[in-house]
Amino acid sequence: MDRGGRPPRLSRATAVDTALAASAAVVDVFLFSAVSSRKPEGAGMWVFVALVAIGFTALLVRRRYPVLVFGVIWVWAVLVTPTSEQEFQPTATPCVALFTVALRSERKVSAGALLACGVLAVLAGLREAASRPPEARLVATYATLVFYLLVYGCVWAGGRWARLSRQHAEDLEFRRRVEAHEAVMGERTRIARELHDIVAHSVTVMVLQAAGARRVLDSDPVRVRDALGHIEEAGEQAMGELRRMLTVLRLSDDDEAGGGVTGRPQPGLADVEHLVGTVSAAGVRVHTRAEGEPRRLAASVDLAAYRVVQEALTNVTKHVGPGAEVDVRLRWEADELTVEVTDDGRGRRPEWAVSTNHGLVGLRERLAIVGGRLEAQPLAPGGFRVTAVLPVTGPAGEPVREHR
Q: Would you kindly state where each structural domain of the chain is located, as residue ranges?
């Protein structure tokens, strides 16, 4: 009983098994027995009902015990076939049990079940021959034997095909999860290497400012005060980056070994114009515009904004091709920056383009680390839009100049 006092509902699997078992029993009764033409009476009726009930009941637990259920039904069919007064030759019920074994068991077990069904086919052929005149027995035996062998063979093949298809689907799903995980881990490793550069730059500024302040400590107090201000600002930036990212990355020893300081400055929104020029040279028309007053971005957020534009434009060149038009829009607000890249999907699509969507998976991971969020959605009649929302930290910054 559930909390409301109502009896629990049957699960979908139980309902399917019940319906399938009932259907198999009905088929066996009306197609593979003589009950429709010679109805049993008295005790014979109850015996016949009991025989049918055995097969029906066994099929109810076929999912949990496929081999055991097949064994029970096989023994039941072997005993029933030569003894039933109603010429009862169970066929649909053994077929369901055989399909379940072929679907849920290993090849050797399912092959053994198929061979066992060959015994049922032989018994059916012998029984059919016994009911025929002598001159027709041989033909009846072979015809019946071939019929049942074909039926059991097709059922077994269907079960094996369903098993292989299910395994293939599971393998594809596993590979998809592994590739998505690798994309996320790859993006995290990339962020860790970029973090090295950001923090290293801040520390370098601090060291240089401190060295300069020490040299003029006695002669130029104003310059020392300015240097200390720069040191404080650079230190706050470095600590902010570490708090934001290191708690999420949890770098392993391998990641640390692979991530060294490159010495190159990391790109940001100031480099979008150069990126747009590169994409335009490939035949994609890109329009950029900025709305609102530009504000200050942390180094990692500035880099993430650049990566959003870079990934979106890269996807356009790979999957839409030359001739497409792209609108890159930056919308500045008091506490967040919205980066929106929209294409019309009307380019000359390259034939070699293959999409895995793992770039967007890694990009979503990057934005989550810096406190942002990402949305990607297709547009009618074939365009695509990538929208990122990123946090801002202050009232400083320079807009991206419009480019056409």
A: 12-174, 190-258, 269-391
Distances (CA, A) of 292 to 156, 241, 247, 326, 329: 68, 26, 33, 20, 11
Interatomic CA distance for residues 351 and 377, integer angstroms: 22
CATH topology of domain 269-391: Heat Shock Protein 90 (3.30.565)
State which H helix or E strand residue 179 sits in: helix 137-215
Question: Model confidence over 57-68: pLDDT tens digits?
Answer: 999 999 899 999
pTM of the shown model: 0.51
How far is it, in rounded angstroms, from Cα 79 to Cα 72? 11
Residue 373 neighbours by CB distance under 10 Å: 12
Long-range CB contacts for residues 101-107, cutoff 8 Å, separation at least 24: 101/66, 101/67, 101/70, 101/159, 102/155, 102/156, 102/157, 102/158, 102/159, 102/160, 102/162, 102/163, 103/66, 103/159, 103/160, 103/162, 103/163, 103/166, 104/63, 104/66, 104/163, 105/66, 105/67, 107/160
Q: Pick the more confident residue, 227 or 119.
A: 119
For residue 254, give every residue at least 6 positions away whose Cβ sits within 8 Å of its Cβ, in sequence order, or none.
none
Report pLDDT for 399.
45
For residue 96, is pLDDT > 70? yes
Among residues 25, 105, 107, which one has the least CA distance to residue 60? Answer: 25
Judged by DSSP in three states, 3 sits in coil
